[in-house]
Design goal:
The protein has one domain (18-155): 3-Layer(aba) Sandwich (Rossmann fold). By secondary structure, the chain is an alpha/beta fold. Strand 1, helix 1 and strand 2 (51-56) form a beta-alpha-beta unit. It is globular. The protein has a four-stranded parallel beta sheet, with helices on both faces. Helix content is 44%, strand content 17%. The longest helix has 20 residues, at 91-110. It has five helices and four strands. This is 6,7-dimethyl-8-ribityllumazine synthase. (2S)-2-hydroxy-3-oxobutyl phosphate binds at residues 88-89, 130. Keywords: Riboflavin biosynthesis, Transferase. Forms an icosahedral capsid composed of 60 subunits, arranged as a dodecamer of pentamers. 5-amino-6-(D-ribitylamino)uracil binds at residues 25, 59-61, 83-85, 116.
């Protein structure tokens, strides 16, 4: 019986071009997410000159800016960051749901990783916890996911059939 080929992203081959698209709304939280994302990329060998920051008003505007970045900047990956905090109206559900669905569609349409670091939380306290206090920094985690996917997709190559990945057993 032949061993099962296994592939997973590594962090030793992640240099490339990264675009971080940032929703400014709730900037007191989002600024920490940006710091975390940039820190993760630089720590793993991405040259700061290969990191672009694109600022948009909020979560609703993220997908359009991500699409334009994919079209014009041709990054290896995009990291989308923002914070959508539940309020007293259904606005939260509309913004969070549509933003997430659009980002997912874009990554599939463009065959390019889009790490979703858009916080969707019930309170400002939860947002602060996820921006670098109790629950870690979700910006850092999103950048890590982006790099891991860049590495994995490089290993998988272009239009290679599934049985010829060349992964190690």
């Amino acid at each position: 019986m032949q061993p099962i080929a296994q592939l997973e992203g590594r962090f030793d081959d992640v240099d490339g071009r990264y675009v971080i698209v940032v929703g400014r709304f709730n900037h007191h939280v989002v600024d920490s997410l940006v710091e975390g994302a940039v820190d993760a990329l630089v720590r793993h060998g991405v040259d700061e000159a290969n990191i672009d920051l694109v600022h948009v008003p909020g979560g609703w505007e993220l997908p359009l800016a991500v699409q334009r970045a994919l079209n014009r900047l041709a990054p290896d990956a995009v990291v989308a960051l923002g914070a959508v905090i539940r309020g007293g109206t259904p606005h939260f559900e509309h913004i969070a749901g549509q933003c997430n669905a659009a980002l997912n569609r874009l990554q599939l349409d463009y065959d390019t990783p889009i790490a979703n670091g858009v916080l969707t939380v019930n309170s400002i306290e939860q947002a602060i916890e996820r921006a670098g206090t109790k629950a870690g920094n979700k910006g850092f985690e999103a950048a890590m996911a982006a790099m891991e996917m860049v590495s994995l997709l490089r290993q998988m190559g272009g239009d290679m059939p599934a049985d010829s990945y060349g992964g190690e057993a």
